[in-house]
Design a protein that fits this description.
- The chain is an all-alpha fold and 108 residues long.
- The protein folds into 2 domains: 41 residues; 49 residues.
- Helix content is 63%, strand content 0%.
């Protein structure tokens, strides 16, 4: 597998986070993201959107024609998510950082 372009990945990540914040600010009628107001981001909706987006990009990858090939790719993605969460938690533990505050809101 060729080496990934980390600068490109960083730029993409920054752009996606910015878009999520901007849309979230617009939906709650906040004057602007980053102005000190509390920004409410729907974590469940963001995760659902990212899952859909990932599926849309992966759908065109050659070699994902059978359910077993898709399952193999899903296992690779799941492993990267598990490792990423572990890495983030390790980094937070080393730096004393905390995750963004979250509140679970569910309808009755």
């Amino acid at each position: 597998m060729p080496e990934l372009n980390e600068d490109y990945i960083s730029d993409l990540r920054r752009a996606v986070v910015k878009a999520i914040c901007e849309v979230s600010a617009q939906r709650q009628h906040s004057p602007e993201a980053g102005k000190g107001d509390t920004l409410y981001i729907g974590s469940a909706e963001v995760c659902q959107m990212l899952t859909i987006l990932l599926a849309e990009f992966l759908e065109g990858v050659p070699g994902l024609d059978t359910p077993s090939e898709v399952r193999r790719m899903s296992d690779v993605v799941a492993k990267k998510i598990r490792l990423g969460i572990g890495e983030i938690r390790r980094h937070r533990g080393e730096t004393g950082g905390t995750p963004p505050p979250s509140i679970i809101i569910r309808g009755n």
